[in-house]
Amino acid sequence: MVEGSRTTMRRIDQAQTTHYKRSLTFIIFTVITLTFSLFTFMNPSFMKKQIAKESNSVVAERFVNQRFDNFAETIGAERQGSVSNLLTVNQTKPIADAMIDYTLGLHWFRAENASLAKQIRKVVLTKIDDNSSAEAQSVQTKLKKYSQSGIYSVITGFELSNTTLAANIETLFLVINIVVIAMCLLAAYSILREMNELVTRRRFIHLLASSGMWSGSLLIIIFTLLALIPLIFNVEGLILNIGYFLEIASGIFLELVIIGAIVFIVSTIVWQITATE
Question: Are 191 and 246 in contact (CB under 8 A)?
């Protein structure tokens, strides 16, 4: 009878230990991922620096030029066959920066995009010069003839309704991120306090390190796969410009892989040190 009770207690302890590990693994992974996204993907300053990099500037230039071509068709600018109305990096970057500032950062839900259209209109009118392509100069000439209607043409041609939708989705994600991080921290505090009362300090650190190892492994595996998506698949046609985002984000995902590797290595060392009583 006594032996049966002891066996039951050991099973309960093992089940409880597994529960602690899984819960802490999920919490550590979630907090690291969401905190990282707050300071990177939702940070306009960081993202503008990212698109300034040589590899990402090509993606940003292609994205803006695609919308510039749509805009040229909207206002009826002259075109030579199927030649794209290519803008240079110096012309596309101010437009990309304006769209990033509008979409990311701290703001409430947006209901208008005329302010962004005015910024884009200003870039088209001031940055295109005699050295620009003939098509780009044609767009500038046409735009100068419009006043208020030119703003609506920019909104339509550059598909700014999608940009407004992306800005509102970003706001929603920002609120959810902060709420989820707060809930995870509260849950972690509760679990750690309970663990501290049930196990020794060495066992406590050992379990925490074990959860860190699993979290680091998940970070490495998941974000390595995400970083490889643009290399394996053609993602340009995805809705809401997700394809362009994945191309730029692939390098950022690799930074999260590095963080995961650091978490895994440090946790493994601590886990090994605390493995024996």
Answer: no
Q: In sequence order, which ranges of the chain are alpha helices (DSSP H)?
A: 2-39, 44-52, 54-75, 89-103, 114-127, 134-144, 148-157, 160-198, 201-232, 242-273
Report whether 48 contacts 100 (CB < 8 A).
Answer: yes
- Quick one: 52 and 135 in the same domain? yes
Do residues 64 and 139 touch, judged by C-beta distance below 8 A?
A: no
CB 87 within 8 A of CB 68: yes
Number of domains in the chain: 2
Helix, strand or coil, per DSSP, at residue 160: helix
Which of 52-61, 220-229, 240-249 has the weakest average pLDDT? Answer: 240-249
Residues 89-101, mean pLDDT to the nearest whole number: 92
Kindly report the pTM of this predicted structure. Answer: 0.85
- Is residue 26 in some structural domain? yes
Specify burial of residue 190 (Cβ count, 10 A radius: 0-12, 13-18, 19+).
exposed
Instruction: Tally the residues of the chain.
Output: 277
Q: Examine residue 231 and state whether it is found in any structural domain, yes or no.
A: yes
User: What range defines the domain where residue 92 resides?
Assistant: 46-158
Give 18's pLDDT tier (boundaries 50, 70, 90). Answer: confident
Q: Is 169 part of a structural domain of the chain?
A: no
As a whole number of angstroms, the distance between CA 253 and CA 59 comes to 16
Q: Are residues 22 and 61 in the same domain?
A: no
Rounded CA-CA distance 121/154 in Å is: 7
Amino acid at 94: P
* Residue 199 phi, psi dihedral angles, 5° rounding: -125, 165
Residues 26 and 63 in one domain: no
Token pair, residue 147, equals 């006043």
pLDDT at residue 5 is higher than 80:
no
What is the average pLDDT across 205-219? 94
Structure-token pair, residue 140? 């500038």
